[in-house]
Amino acid sequence: MNIFKLVLASVLITNASARFGKGWGHGGRGQGNGGGQGMSNRDRMAMIQKLFDHRQDIYRDVDNMDDLGINATTYSYDREVGTWIQSHVYQMVNLMESGGRIRDWDDLFRYLFDHRNDQTMQVTNTTEDGKYGVNVVQTVVSDIEDDSERDCIAQLIQDHAKVVTKFLERGRREMHKNHPVSVKCD
């Protein structure tokens, strides 16, 4: 979705669809922050640090969708932490959509941002069963005809999901690592 400094706003976006770089919109109602544009890297980092500080309260379920991408749900039973997760995701979507970047020193993130136009994302806020967070379906765009390119983008999406899970499992130790790009992208 900046990511780390929580700024509460009157609208929390409950659904968003994106094909990065192609124009897209948000919809829905709620409470919290749906922003990301206009926030500084310092603000994003403050939010990320807050998420790292509360990572023991964050849960994640990721399903790889064969050669398409992922379906991931990230949530907390703590409503405030869930709102931070939602804010972070929307900030990252906005960063991708606006042509911004984060972790440009990390090979995987740099390549993922370089291929922003080859991905689509559907984000839905979750509140069911006391689980506050987001469900993200991130896939390869349908108009990529080259199988090797589709495989590469799907692998990038899946590897990114694995790294986000490692961030939750290992915390800041993982945050400071560089993550390689899959050989499928050579």
In short, what is this structure?
The protein is α+β, with helices and mostly antiparallel strands. It is 37% helix and 21% strand.
Can you put this structure into words, describing what you see?
This protein is α+β, with helices and mostly antiparallel strands and 186 residues long. It is 37% helix and 21% strand. The chain has a six-stranded antiparallel beta sheet with strand order 2-1-5-6-4-3, covered by helices on one side. The relative contact order is 0.19. Mean pLDDT is 80; it is low at 1-37.
Query: Mind summarizing the main beta sheet?
Result: 6 strands, antiparallel
Number of strands: 6
Envelope shape = globular
Share of helical residues: 25-40%
- Helix-strand topology string: EEHEEHHEEHH
Distance between the termini: 28 Å
What is the C-alpha radius of gyration, as a whole number of Å? 15 Å
The low-pLDDT segments are 1-37
Give the class from helix and strand content and strand pairing: alpha+beta
Helix count equals 5
Spatial order of the strands in the main sheet?
A: 2-1-5-6-4-3
Q: What is the residue-mean pLDDT, rounded to a whole number?
A: 80
| Percentage of residues in DSSP E strands | 15-25%
Features:
single chain; 186 residues; alpha+beta; 6-stranded antiparallel beta sheet; 5 helices; 6 strands; 37% helix; globular; disordered N terminus
